[in-house]
Write a structure and sequence with these properties.
By secondary structure, the protein is mainly α. The protein has helices at 3-16, 20-42, 53-65, 75-100, 111-114, 126-139, 141-152, 157-164, 168-191; strands at 108-109, 124-125. It folds into two domains: 1-120, no CATH class; 123-192, Arc Repressor Mutant, subunit A (Orthogonal Bundle). The protein has a two-stranded antiparallel sheet.
Amino acid sequence: MDDQQGETTRLLLEACQGQRAALEALLPLVYDQLKAIAVQRLRNERRDHTLQPTALVHEAFLRMVDQSRVQWQNRAHFCAVAASMMRRILVDHARHRAAEKRGAGRRDVPLLETLGLAKGRNPVDIVALDDLLKELSRLNERHARVVELRFFGGLTVEETAHTLDVSPATVKNDWRTARAWLLTQLSDHDAG
């Protein structure tokens, strides 16, 4: 574990013990990684999107540190929660915008390209992706978490394996299976 990861883990543990100063010291250590995740997620947004990477990072960070019941384990756990939180924020934002425009504001994500499934297909909107991940979670929660961590969190196979406490081979298999399931669901949706 490098010095920065060790320091992050120490600050997270102190934050669990209620030390507010630890939270203030934490943001500079994780900011660049959170910003990279946010930039990656927002890269697929429409050009006039009102949510910027900095705002997404700050909103996610504020929601995460407000979680009194979370027992932070390490930097990977923190980034996994960040991925989940960013997913919720983006989905909430898309739903709110869609409600304002009566469905015209649903945000499309080139999901198939992002997941490495296929090129040249129509994008899938973020709300539909969230619905599919909820359904996948009911079938196999770990598969859904792998997609969430890799797609929304930008985690590598190794980081995902560490976060889920499984082997990289398991993550690769779960990733392959989840992508195949998503492709099937999207193909059925396109056919219908």
